[in-house]
Amino acid sequence: MINIEKREEFDIEIDKTVGKPFINDAKFSTRNVDVFYGEKQAIFDANIDIGKNQIIAMIGSSGCGKSTFLRCLNRMNDTIQDCHISGDIRLDDEDIYQKQQDPVLLRARVGMVFQKPNPFPKSIYDNVAYGAKLHGLASSKIELDELVEKSLIRAGLFKEVKDSLHKPGTSLSGGQQQRLCIARTIAIDPEVILMDEPTSALDPIATAVIEELMIDLSKKYTIAIVTHSMQQAARVSQRTAYFHLGYVVEVNDTNIVFTNPEHQLTENYITGRFG
Amino acid sequence: METQQHISRQYNQELESVKSKVLKMGGLVEDQVEKSISALIEQNSELAKEVAESDYKINKIEVEIDESCAQLIAKRQPAAGDLRLVIAIIKVITDLERIGDEAEKIGRYTQKLTSMKDDVNMYAELSRLGDKVITILRDALDAFARMDVEQAARIAETDRQIDEEFDRVSRILVTHMMENSRNIKTMLHVIWCARALERIGDHSQNICEYVVYLVKGKDVRHIELE
Lengths: 275, 226
Prior knowledge:
The complex is a heterodimer of chains A (275) and B (226).
Chain A: H1 4-7, E1 18-19, E2 26-37, E3 40-51, E4 55-59, H2 66-72, E5 83-91, E6 94-95, H3 103-109, E7 110-113, H4 124-134, H5 141-154, H6 158-161, H7 174-187, E8 192-196, H8 204-217, E9 222-226, H9 230-236, E10 239-244, E11 247-253, H10 254-259, H11 264-270
Parallel strand pairs in A: 1-11, 4-9, 4-10, 7-8, 8-9
Antiparallel strand pairs in A: 2-3, 2-5, 5-6, 10-11
Chain B: H1 9-42, H2 45-52, H3 55-76, H4 80-116, H5 127-146, H6 149-179, H7 184-216
Helix pairs in contact in B: 1-2, 1-3, 1-4, 1-5, 2-4, 3-4, 4-7, 5-6, 5-7, 6-7
């Protein structure tokens, strides 16, 4: 599938993804996914399964396509002009790019947390309640209160904000804001949470809190995380996918990737060698 | 194996420096073992004393390497091949230090044997065992220095030969003991030396197992090397 001209870019050939890209009982499965921004191809023939109630980490240097790939999973790329996607992406064995699929409903099932905490310019309470109201998940004020409380508890933020629910979300610290965004995401009860470098703007303590939270959340949700911190990928994920110049080089158990990766390019990247 | 350099040159230097310390330690250990065997076979009490009193050098370098490895882990969080290298080094130097201890033991027993002045001409019997032990140690250190898995695997065979040779020497010594019970004390010292040599073979084989782990990422301890 990889065209010959492209191959010359590599010292080491990438024939196909090595390791274990496919698993049984996948939540997400992607096959032969190519992504183009206009003329430029950003992802070449990506084939990855994402396991249920697992954390999969996507690593690779800037511009390798890992964020692009993540954004395909809840059709965030639809909003980008010139971006087109081919291949097959299935959530619970249903094609998420089929015509009758409403992207808004898809994004309710597949939530996303971004690099920079981006609370709405509203109160802490409204930030969490917003999506639930939009999707009509609560029929009364009491139910909504309960949902907000439950989401904040799950996100590990409730204790810190229970007396200031009506203060603006932006008044919180960076780490708290990020947990608020996670609370907002889980308030609408998604099945999958995508995280695009969720802790790169946070200090190590706030990062540790979020990582703990991720592990906790993975009992209920499937999580895919893009991270530049290899230690983070090693700490939180069960599986790791290494992207290089738009190719998925290796997908393997995290334990294998960080002790004995199969592909030389993966080894070079995680040991900090010129790749 | 490591054809490419790290982006951090400092990191490269740190790893290289630890590796060269291990090779230096290996050289020291090899020297001690050779001297201890010569001292034993030639019944040279001067040389035996020198060996017994030089073990501190090996211990000192072991501590230094351990410290460097701890620093590397704390500062660099090595992964994959680098991680296996650091782990293998920590393990290799433990076995090297033990080999040093065995050489020291041989030195001390030899000192005692030379003072016993018994008319026991057993030492030539140990020379074949000694030769094999020097070979296996040298090969193990070579395999580590060159990260040569094939050589590491071949060493298993030498270790089998050492075990056989040790059994043969033991049988001869037991026969001597039965023939003349006044020699038992001397014979026990000789057999302890033979035992120490046999242990050096085992430690050398351990080093080879770490080489396989380092290069292949497979733990081959407690299974047959193929």
